[in-house]
């Protein structure tokens, strides 16, 4: 109870409200940091800003701090890495380059059914080891790859039930280089030793022949026998000929006249005779 000349005592709820207001005011004046944390020092911010300004000054000067001509002496020529010339990758023998391309296609499109050794899976998928169609006429083989096969194989056996072999170009993602590579790979792998290269030009012809088929969908033994028992048109390629491993196109060495011209360009010209003198004959 308060005396007449005293302020009335605060009730409990009033004390709590005042304490809350004072605590909030103190928090605004000087927030209490969480354990393990502290504000970033002004000096740290200043150092970071100075570094950023310095980096901007160097880059703003077109990178003069890293000027190639200042770092390396005059006349210095960088040695290109192996295979790093402007002419593209070093050429490879045609058989090696085509086989490498074919192996990639085999691993992405064929290995699931025909397996890594090319022997297939029993009654489900046929073996390509010694296959008469794989080692026979290239046009027939290419039509099977591009369009698939429904019905019996060369042996008369039917694999995969009624579905048969699907087209390996159903999504139009197979390129002539891929077709040429995988056909060459099958004909010269798994114990097959055909020894020839199915070229890119031959594969392009296969795409053209396939587009002109009168039938759609998978091929059949009847169609293959009636229309495609022949080799693809195209000039044969020596398996040892050098080709670009990316495009599989032949790489021709410089001819004798080209080499002579290059040598002539590098030969320094004779100095001009001084005034009043006669050039030697």
Offer a concise description of the structure:
The chain has helices at residues 12-29, 42-60, 68-71, 94-114, 132-135, 138-147, 176-187, 200-211, 221-227, 256-266; strands spanning 92-93, 242-243. By secondary structure, it is mainly α.
Describe the 3D structure.
There is one protein chain. With 281 residues, the chain is mostly helical. 42% of the residues lie in helices and 1% in strands. Helix 4 (94-114) crosses helix 7 (176-187) and helix 7 packs across helix 8 (200-211). The model has no long low-confidence stretch (mean pLDDT 81).
Count helical runs.
Answer: 10
CATH superfamily (homologous) name of the domain at 93-235? Cytochrome c-like domain
Radius of gyration, CA atoms, in whole angstroms = 40 Å
H/E series: HHHEHHHHHHEH
Arithmetic mean pLDDT: 81
- From the spread of the alpha carbons, the general shape counts as elongated
Number of strands: 2
Helix content: 40-55%
Per the CATH scheme, the topology name of the domain at 93-235 is Cytochrome Bc1 Complex, Chain D, domain 2
CATH architecture title of the domain at 93-235: Orthogonal Bundle
| Low-pLDDT residue spans | none
What's the arrangement of strands in the largest beta sheet? 1-2
Alpha-beta content class: mainly alpha
- Outline the biggest β-sheet: 2 strands, antiparallel
Distance between the termini: 138 Å
CATH class value of the domain at 93-235: Mainly Alpha
Which percent band covers the strand fraction?
under 5%
